[in-house]
Amino acid sequence: MTRASRLSIAWAMVWIFLTAPALAQQAAAPPAVTVVKVEEREITPAVTFTGRIEAKDKVDLRARVEGFLEKRLFEEGQDVNAGDLLFVIEKAPYQAEIENVDAAIARAQAALDLAELDQRRQGELVKKQATAQARLDDATAKAGEARGDLRRQQANLTTAELNLGYTDIKAPISGRIGRANYSVGNFVGPSSGTLATIVSQDPMYVTFPVTQRQLLEVRKSNPDAGADPSTRTVKVRLADGEVYDQVGRLNFVDVQVNQGTDTVLVRATLPNPQRLLVDGQLVTAIVETAKPESALLIPQQAVQIDQTGRYVLKVDADNKVQVQRITVGDQRDGAYVVTNGLQLGERVITEGLQKVRPGMVVDPGEAPMPPAAG
Question: What is the reported pTM?
Answer without folding.
Answer: 0.65
